[in-house]
């Protein structure tokens, strides 16, 4: 009876080894926390470039170093520079805090006064107005302070990415052999992560740039103030689900009407609601749905968490981390509750494991 209640030596060894692994992993993450965004970014770009890397190295017989450098340069031009341009533009405008905040305060006061005169409703009390102005000042200050950090992350990210692209088969073999999971679950994680990364790294920036460019045309046509800055703000705001770019163009339209430009203000409002809104729906329900159907709450909370952890790059990494956490919960259930595994999604144990792709 006592022997049955005793914990086996194997279980004790497993728990002890797991504890050591967790402690060492915690120490590594704590001391290398600055490089976590770089690792996430390198993995993201690796997944995007993976197919082309294998094509160049294995079919075209390019040298690994040449293939790696070409793909790194292409990813820098296509993926990183557009996002960095928007971020840098916002930082440049927000960086001149004294001039910017003076204009921003006038902008807010004008909107508040106009709305109050029209509907006699105090949309923003003096206390809330002060809070909003204070929050905007803090955002501008933190944006400027994060410039150097962003450049450091990008440089270290490409340093890590080079070694991933240089020997891709070895890199993937190390990942799959290190994961203490069934091959079917490794395949599930790989396939799901590929879709999540493509949706966040390709889909969301494309939707943002598309909306920003379409809105920019309207800003120039109807004479909106600072159209290039508004383009950057619209592109950044479009990443936020539900409200999206409306949190930028609606106040701008009200401001233009309050300034006496009623015709252009109403015209811009109609243009943004119809054309920009149609662009948003078209891109989201075609491109994003095709890549991966991500729940809006994942994106909202992912962006909030990602911005706190990684700054501007958190716009992409935050939603990925939220989705990955939910995916790992599903994998945990599949790994240890085999009776609940759907037969269509997870094949029977007797099936040949070699038929399952290893990663991504």
In percent, how helical is the residue content? over 70%
Could you state the order of secondary-structure elements as H and E? HHHHHHHHHHHHHH
Strand content: under 5%
What's the mean pLDDT score? Answer: 75
Q: Quaternary state, please?
A: single chain
Strand tally = 0
Number of domains: 2
The biggest sheet amounts to:
none
Distance between the termini: 48 Å
Q: Which outline best applies?
A: elongated
**Count of DSSP H/I helices:** 14
Low-confidence stretches: 143-148, 340-360
Subcellular location: Membrane
Main location: membrane
Keywords: Membrane, Transmembrane, Transmembrane helix
Family: Belongs to the autoinducer-2 exporter (AI-2E) (TC 2.A.86) family.
What would your notes on this structure say?
The protein is mostly helical and 360 residues long. The protein has two domains: 36-96 and 111-169, no CATH class; 181-360. Helices cover 80% and strands 0% of the residues. It has 14 helices and no strands. It has helices spanning 2-5, 9-31, 36-59, 64-95, 97-119, 126-145, 147-166, 168-178, 183-221, 227-237, 246-258, 262-291, 296-310, 314-336. Helix 9 runs antiparallel to helix 14 and helix 11 (246-258) packs antiparallel against helix 12. The radius of gyration is 25 Å and the shape is elongated. It is found in: Membrane. This is Permease. InterPro entries: AI-2E-like.
């Amino acid at each position: 009876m006592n022997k049955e209640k005793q914990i086996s030596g194997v279980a004790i060894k497993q728990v002890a080894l797991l504890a050591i692994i967790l402690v060492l992993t915690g120490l590594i993450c704590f001391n290398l926390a600055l490089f976590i965004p770089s690792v996430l970014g390198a993995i993201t770009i690796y997944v995007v470039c993976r197919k082309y890397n294998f094509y160049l190295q294995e079919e075209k017989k390019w040298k690994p170093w040449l293939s790696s450098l070409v793909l790194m340069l292409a990813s820098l031009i296509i993926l990183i520079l557009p996002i960095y341009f928007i971020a840098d533009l916002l930082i440049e405008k927000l960086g001149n805090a004294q001039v910017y905040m003076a204009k921003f305060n006038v902008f807010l006061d004008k909107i508040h006064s106009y709305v109050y005169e029209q509907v006699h409703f105090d949309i923003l009390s003096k206390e809330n107005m002060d809070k909003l102005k204070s929050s905007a000042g803090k955002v501008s200050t933190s944006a400027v302070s994060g410039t150097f950090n962003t450049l450091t992350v990008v440089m270290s990210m490409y340093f890590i990415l080079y070694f991933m692209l240089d020997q891709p088969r070895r890199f993937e073999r190390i990942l799959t052999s290190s994961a203490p999971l069934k091959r079917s679950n490794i395949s599930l994680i790989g396939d799901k992560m590929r879709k999540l990364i493509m949706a966040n790294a390709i889909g969301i920036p494309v939707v943002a740039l598309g909306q920003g460019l379409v809105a920019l045309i309207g800003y120039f046509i109807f004479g909106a103030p600072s159209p290039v800055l508004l383009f950057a703000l619209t592109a950044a705001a479009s990443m936020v689900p539900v409200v999206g770019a409306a949190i930028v163009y609606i106040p701008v339209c009200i401001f233009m009407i309050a300034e006496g430009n009623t015709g252009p203000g109403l015209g811009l409002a109609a243009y943004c609601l119809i054309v920009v809104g149609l662009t948003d729906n078209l891109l989201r329900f075609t491109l994003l749905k095709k890549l991966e159907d991500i729940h809006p709450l994942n994106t909202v909370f992912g962006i909030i968490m990602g911005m706190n952890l990684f700054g501007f790059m958190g716009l992409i990494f935050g939603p990925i981390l939220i989705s990955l956490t939910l995916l790992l919960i599903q994998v945990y259930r599949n790994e240890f509750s085999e009776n609940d595994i759907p037969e269509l999604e997870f094949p029977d144990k007797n099936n040949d494991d070699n038929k399952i792709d290893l990663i991504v």
